[in-house]
Amino acid sequence: MDEVESKAASLPQWCDTQGISNDLLSTLLPGPVTVLLPRLPEDPLCPLLNPGVAEIGIRVPDSPLVCRLSAALATVLREEGLITIDDLYFHPSMKDKGYASVTAIPLVLTSANPSGYQSTLSPDEFSCLWPELDLVLDGGRIGGEAGDDQLHRAASTVVDLSPTVRQSDTSAQSTRPYRILREGSALVQTEEILHQFGFSKSCPS
User: Fold this and answer.
1) For 47-56, which contacts have Cβ atoms below 8 Å and span 24 or more sequence positions?
2) What is the CB neighbour count within 10 angstroms for residue 29?
3) Where exactly are the structural domains of the chain?
4) Which of 30, 54, 64, 116 would bridge with 60, disulfide CB 3.0–4.6 Å?
């Protein structure tokens, strides 16, 4: 639980979570949920990442391979002197807020399948893309050999919490709006959690 809470607690270093409690984030994440939040005014993320887009989609995976890769990358870059704590872990404005340094680097990822094709569960299923890749990491078949393929092929549920962050009165429980941008595989449990924390679904505009 401490590890999960620490992952959720690191989100304010990368995006604006004003009005969103760590308890909510640590309940939603990790898992098959992508949370859309505004980028910070003093954005610590690479300016080449979706330039001109005001929000960023954040997901904390429950894949041990991805988590180890992110942590190992931070360690290697730091040990090789390619990054320092000041370079990566803090935007200058964040030091004054007392955020602890994180131990993993955020990774920018896309799905391992051609656009329009179903999600893949093993490297063999996207072998057509191998010639275009520098490296393929095999963490085993998603869901295991006896898993529910249909369930594991479903995309993550995408929930937009940026309306709550942007509204002026974040203290009013009844005015904490959210939007579902993609139903995905965790819609029911995601909405149940949001309602437990006093969020209300926004009507489509």
Assistant:
1) 49/108, 54/162, 55/160, 55/162, 56/14, 56/15
2) 20
3) 11-111+156-201, 112-154
4) 30
